[in-house]
Amino acid sequence: MLAQIEALMLALRPEAQPVSAQKLCKRLQIRMSTLLRCLAYLGEQDMAGQAGLGWVHSEQQGERLLLSLTALGHATCASW
């Protein structure tokens, strides 16, 4: 899963606007379930009492899940 996490972070890095989860799945050639597992680890929300890293911001806009890097996420990518 580390390869998918790195690919997700690097795909979001150059984006100025939030990107739909659906579009990212197609671009990265991964399933939505894999993306959601990555989000549980990288996101800002608590999952089952475990805090995420806060590198990826997600927001629901109607049917669409939009993703973008947080300032911490950008800083983390820059350090790679």
Description:
It is a single chain. With 80 residues, the protein is α+β, with helices and mostly antiparallel strands. It has one domain (2-79): Arc Repressor Mutant, subunit A, CATH 1.10.10.10. It is built from 4 helices and 5 strands. It has helices at residues 2-12, 21-28, 32-42, 71-79, and strands spanning 19-20, 46-47, 50-51, 56-61, 64-69. Strands 1-5-4 form a 3-stranded antiparallel beta sheet. Strands 2-3 form a two-stranded antiparallel sheet. The longest helix has 11 residues, at 2-12. The radius of gyration is 12 Å and the shape is globular. The mean pLDDT is 91.
Return Rg in Å. 12 Å
Low-confidence stretches: none
CATH topology assignment: Arc Repressor Mutant, subunit A
- Helicity range: 40-55%
List keywords for this structure.
two-stranded antiparallel ribbon, Arc Repressor Mutant, subunit A, 80 residues, 5 strands, alpha+beta, single chain, three-stranded antiparallel beta sheet, 49% helix
Describe the structure concisely.
By secondary structure, this protein is an alpha+beta fold. It has helices spanning 2-12, 21-28, 32-42, 71-79, and strands at residues 19-20, 46-47, 50-51, 56-61, 64-69. The mean pLDDT is 91.
SSE inventory with pairings:
Elements: H1 2-12, E1 19-20, H2 21-28, H3 32-42, E2 46-47, E3 50-51, E4 56-61, E5 64-69, H4 71-79
Antiparallel strand pairs: 1-5, 2-3, 4-5
